[in-house]
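User: Sequence recovery, please. Input:
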């Protein structure tokens, strides 16, 4: 039985409008509109005619922090000092009074993201001696509340450092027991002042437990570049190619040109991905250079309305626009590389076995009133329809009651 038939869809890479047949939550057939299908039996199938609108695969937010968000809660004016360590300290001081981590705020944000066409997120959840794994449990509760709308996977994130906070290594492993699938890290040199200690601890656990690794690396210049090498060496040594990522990776935008290209080749050879958020004045990697040299680049919102800053709205098409704009690209094919960070690039980062607008992939689709992906990125239109696992979950920016 056909569960859902999406008619007259404009799919990237197809000259003609296509019909997409969904069965059991997965794409079963993609074929030129009107050429192949028996009429669905009346009353047994849902048919959606999207009338030539663009259909994209479900968007992926590959780096956010839903445990930190104040979404749907009070407006909280920013109160931290200007440095990274100031923001870490401010959050530790204020989070409990503000009710963080809050499964209600996290679920509210995840629902909002679903209305924007995001069908999957990788969220970095704080794990530290003050909280233990309560954040992991809080986000798991939020994820359960939005099941069927948006898939959630968690990174156990040592925001406050690993080695400098005794007990954190053990907590990271406990977080895997509590449901996290990826180990996070943070500035092994800049925050921990013990790069070998932090990285050796993370890679030992990851290799033993089959976990992925995704490290926040804000360290700039030669200090950051040196840590690229440490991560690449350990990735290869432990056979973790394709399972390791550097988030932000500010060094790549703060070293000379020849060094930058050496770092990109190092990432390509060691199978280490990059994740960018294109926020504030943080350097943004070149989508052109990374694509040309075969490095996976994914995108995420990073913080959304939290103690780290007031910005962010969870819109991954808007995030792609920021990446394209910060890259200074104007051609359609280059703008599409920015959108790829929130679709296929993110799917590669997460190691999804099946993804996209092809038979066999989960039927996660977002429909927008645009003619090309580049037009969608530039215009950031209201999402006409969001389909998750073959079910319409949002229409015109609003969740559909089920
Ligand atoms: Zn982050």
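Assistant: Recovered sequence (402 residues):
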């Amino acid at each position: 039985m056909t569960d859902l038939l999406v008619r007259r869809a404009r799919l990237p890479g197809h000259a003609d409008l296509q019909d997409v047949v969904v069965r059991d939550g997965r794409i079963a057939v993609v074929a030129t509109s009107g050429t192949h299908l028996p009429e669905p039996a009346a009353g047994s199938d849902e048919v959606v005619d999207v009338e030539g609108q663009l259909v994209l695969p479900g968007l992926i937010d590959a780096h956010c922090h839903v445990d930190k968000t104040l979404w749907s809660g009070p407006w909280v004016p920013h109160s931290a000092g200007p440095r990274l360590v100031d923001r870490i300290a401010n959050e530790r001081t204020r989070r409990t009074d503000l009710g963080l981590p809050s499964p209600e705020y996290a679920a509210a944000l995840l629902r909002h993201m679903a209305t924007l066409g995001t069908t999957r997120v990788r969220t970095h959840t704080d794990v530290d001696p003050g909280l233990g794994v309560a954040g992991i449990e809080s986000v798991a509760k939020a994820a359960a509340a939005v099941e069927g709308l948006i898939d959630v996977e968690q990174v156990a994130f040592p925001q406050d450092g690993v080695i400098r906070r005794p007990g954190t290594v053990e907590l990271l492993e406990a977080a895997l027991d509590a449901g996290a699938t990826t180990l996070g890290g943070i500035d092994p040199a800049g925050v921990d002042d013990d790069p070998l200690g932090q990285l050796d601890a993370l890679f030992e656990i990851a290799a033993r437990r089959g976990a992925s690794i995704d490290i926040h690396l804000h360290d700039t210049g030669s200090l950051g570049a040196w840590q690229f090498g440490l991560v690449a060496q350990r990735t290869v040594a432990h056979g973790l190619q394709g399972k390791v990522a550097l988030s932000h990776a500010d060094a790549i935008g703060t070293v000379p040109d020849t060094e930058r290209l050496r770092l990109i080749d190092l990432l390509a050879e060691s199978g280490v991905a990059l994740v960018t958020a294109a926020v504030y004045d943080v350097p943004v990697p070149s989508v052109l250079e990374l694509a040309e040299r075969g490095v996976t680049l994914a995108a995420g919102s990073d913080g959304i309305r939290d103690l780290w800053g007031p910005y962010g709205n969870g819109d991954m098409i808007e995030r792609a626009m920021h990446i394209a704009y910060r890259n200074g690209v104007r051609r359609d094919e280059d703008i599409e590389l920015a959108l790829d960070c929130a679709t296929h690039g993110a799917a590669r980062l997460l190691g999804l076995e099946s993804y996209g607008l092809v038979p066999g992939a989960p039927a996660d689709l977002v429909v927008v009133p645009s003619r090309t992906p580049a037009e969608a990125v530039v215009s950031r239109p209201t999402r006409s329809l969001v389909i998750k696992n073959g079910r319409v979950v949002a229409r015109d920016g609003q969740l559909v009651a089920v």
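The domain at 4-57+357-399 is CATH 2.30.40.10 (Urease, subunit C; domain 1).
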